[in-house]
Design a protein that fits this description.
Length: 158
Amino acid sequence: MRSFAAGTLALAGSAAIIAAQAARVPPAGADPRLLAAVKKANSDFETAMTKSDVATIVEPYAADAVFVSTDGTATRGRAAIEQLYRDRFAKTGPALETKILSEELMLDGDFAYERGRGSITRRVRDERVTDWARFLTVWQRQPDGAWMISRNIVLPAR
């Protein structure tokens, strides 16, 4: 169960600068399309996790994206990431609440690196349990100028 929560948070890496972080100054030269993509992905993820909405969760992933869980398991390709979430929701159901805290966004040409942490609250034997994890999400600018998640890595909480 813990790996479900931690792994799911990585997608959180598909993240955004949430309202609490909105006052943060974006990196110099930040593409407004990147900032919008990050914000939308994080906001959509928070809601989609409570509805088992896999399509919304994987929408920002590139077709050849890689998702790495806290145990180091790499899931390759959007279709496989989608199946990973379907399997997890079939086992545990939707989250009660999900939060994504995007803490830093760094730019390097057609790549952006988002670092943050997130939590997933779920019900375990009639109790609310909240698990935290850290994430590193690599966003890549596509030929059409859109930004998509290329790599999403979930790290254990400290």
